[in-house]
TrEMBL record:
<dbReference type="InterPro" id="IPR001296">
    <property type="entry name" value="Glyco_trans_1"/>
</dbReference>
<keyword id="KW-0808">Transferase</keyword>
<dbReference type="InterPro" id="IPR050194">
    <property type="entry name" value="Glycosyltransferase_grp1"/>
</dbReference>
<feature type="domain" description="Glycosyl transferase family 1">
    <location>
        <begin position="186"/>
        <end position="330"/>
    </location>
</feature>
<dbReference type="GO" id="GO:0016757">
    <property type="term" value="F:glycosyltransferase activity"/>
</dbReference>
<protein>
    <submittedName>
        <fullName>Glycosyltransferase involved in cell wall bisynthesis</fullName>
    </submittedName>
</protein>
<dbReference type="Pfam" id="PF00534">
    <property type="entry name" value="Glycos_transf_1"/>
</dbReference>
Length: 359
């Protein structure tokens, strides 16, 4: 059977888009697709993404973003598509949304994915979301509530025949529990997320400071980079928490697995998500979850079975951490989390669902 050629168009730097792409390729166990990638953005091409493409022998191109309406980049995408005779374009970035309109004119298919919660979108990104929804052959959301967010912004949007829900999954064969849990002197939490506005690392740090003042020592590992790194590191030093909190930087896929496996529980404080890959990877590694009670998190975590949810305040995070430390069912939380990851993977294998949309 002839493979279906698809061109993934995604951001060039670190983040969830690259994770989604790698998980998609790894989940394509039946090799139904021939993959091509066009990386685009203000950042240099992420080394792990580049290495992954070389390892998987996936042809790729990289173009640095030059302007909001980047005609040069559009031309490069069209050139790459034409020389490889690719019929399907999987659009994971707002910046090249005009491809959806060109697809209608040229009679090739653009399938647009919305990876960003409305709270994080700029005005131009909201406009591009509208363009994608109106002109893409298929518009993919990761859960129904995500579409409803956009409908609140644009009330005339309809959940029509071109609109589909394909829940995210993670590679459960790679992300898995450790064979033997490490024995820590203190309860150890971890978070992996870009150090940016909207991710509430600051509240977690404040909660750990408050716990220390009351005699409860908790270790925290922070993975990731971002513009708020200097501010957060200064905060840790000012609070005299350098012994309790460690910044481990950017981690590649193998390092990330060991990171999760070194934790007692995973914590994630955020103002909003569109289903968080870090939480899903932690679930697959059999970790109990502490997370913000916000849309994109609370709609798929089951509190009391695998997670403790909290409001985004220092006091609520402190109480959630203490509740998890003292919970006798911690192992059961982790087992349930792993089971949920397995169920999602089997039910919503992304390549299978996408192929069903294409044929």
């Amino acid at each position: 059977m002839q493979k279906i050629k698809i061109l993934h168009i995604l951001y060039s730097g670190q983040g969830g888009l690259g994770t989604y792409f790698m998980n998609f390729v790894n989940s394509d166990q039946k090799k139904q697709f021939e993959h091509f990638v066009f990386f685009y953005g203000i950042e240099e091409l992420d080394k792990e993404l580049e290495a992954f493409c070389k390892e998987q022998q996936i042809p790729y191109r990289y173009q640095r973003k030059q302007s909001k309406i980047d005609l040069k980049a559009l031309g490069k995408v069209l050139e790459f598509r034409k020389e490889n005779q690719i019929q399907y374009l999987l659009l994971h970035t707002f910046s090249l949304s005009f491809l959806t309109i060109l697809g209608l004119i040229k009679n090739w298919k653009v399938i647009a994915f919305d990876h960003t919660t409305l709270a994080y979108k700029t005005k131009i990104e909201k406009l591009f979301t509208l363009v994608n929804h109106l002109f893409a052959q298929k518009m993919i959301y990761f859960y129904k509530g995500h579409f409803e967010q956009n409908k609140r912004q644009f009330p005339f949007l309809r959940f029509g025949k071109n609109t589909h829900i394909i829940p995210k999954t993670v590679d459960i064969h790679f992300f898995k529990p450790a064979h033997k849990k490490l024995d820590h002197p203190h309860f150890t939490l971890g978070i992996t997320a870009r150090l940016i506005q909207g991710k509430r690392h600051d509240l977690i740090i404040e909660a750990i400071r408050t716990l220390k003042q009351k005699g409860q020592i908790v270790q925290l590992k922070i993975a990731g980079k971002g513009p708020k790194e200097g501010e957060l590191k200064a905060m840790v030093t000012n609070y005299q928490l350098d012994e309790e909190i460690e910044f481990v930087g950017l981690l590649n896929r193998n390092q990330l697995l060991h990171f999760y496996q070194s934790l007692d529980a995973y914590i994630h404080a955020s103002e909003g998500e569109t289903i968080c890959y870090s939480i899903m990877e932690a679930q697959a590694c059999g970790l109990p979850i502490l997370a913000s009670d916000v849309e994109g998190i609370s709609n798929y975590l089951q509190e009391g079975k695998e997670a403790v949810l909290f409001e985004n305040t220092t006091e609520h995070i402190k109480k959630a951490i203490l509740k998890m430390i003292n919970d006798a069912n911690l192992v059961e939380f982790g087992n349930f989390a792993r089971n949920q990851a397995e169920v999602l993977f089997k039910k919503y294998n992304n390549p299978e669902m996408l192929k069903n949309l294409l044929i």
